[in-house]
Amino acid sequence: MFNFFDKIQENLLKLIYPDVCNGCNKLLVKGEAIICTSCLHELPYTFHHETQINEIDRKFYGILPFSFCISMLYFHKSGIVQNLIHNLKYKNKQEIGTFLGALYAEELKDFERIKNVTHLIPVPLHKKRLHERGYNQIDAFCESLAVALDIPLEKNVLYRNTYSKSQTKKSKTERAAIKQSLFAVRIPYEFSAPHFLLVDDVITSGATIEACAKELLKIPNATVSILTIAYAQS
Length: 234
Ligand SMILES: [Zn+2]
Description:
By secondary structure, the protein is an alpha/beta fold. It has 2 domains: 1-42, no CATH class; 46-232, Rossmann fold (3-Layer(aba) Sandwich). It is 38% helix and 15% strand. The protein has helices spanning 2-16, 37-42, 55-60, 80-90, 94-107, 127-133, 139-149, 172-180, 207-216, and strands at residues 69-75, 119-122, 158-160, 183-185, 195-203, 223-232. The strands form 2 sheets. The chain has a 4-stranded parallel β-sheet with strand order 1-6-5-2, sandwiched between helices. It is globular, with a radius of gyration of 20 Å. The structure holds zinc ion. Zinc ion is lined by residues 21, 23-24, 26, 35-36, 38-39.
């Protein structure tokens, strides 16, 4: 009986708030979820994992020692991916992360180098931001990947240091020093030659990833790789 009323309520809610595609805002039809079939077919995959040397490799070459760097999709202004990331980040639609994680895990099934990864590490959100938003936008994506690829998710190793409030009053060198120490690592248990896969939403300048990776590399015998939902060409 309850199911019957639940169903009515669900349908009424759908009439008032119909499900729309998170990529293009068009109404979703029966059988579609998260994004419409058209957007699903138009997702701009990078195929980084099938390329010998990709754009991110070039970006970090000589700056960061890493095993591999891959992004799932290309990020274009006012494109499907920008809408997906926006909805994931600001509209509390974590199901987008879950969906993309599962989709990417399927792509990565035959990617041999990911099989050496020992831990998935999400780029942490600052505590204050986490409190305001209530969630880290990358967590659902990470959890989905972790389950599908059978790699443990480790949220306690990398963390963000507390912000210094009046940064503007500080000198340029002081600010640079603060920027460098935005992230830090703690070692909750003994690692033996860990291979950390650092996961973030969008890679643009690469500064955040670089700062995180450098901290992770302070752990003895650590290897770092990078994976993001999207790559913004600059
Ligand atoms: Zn669409």
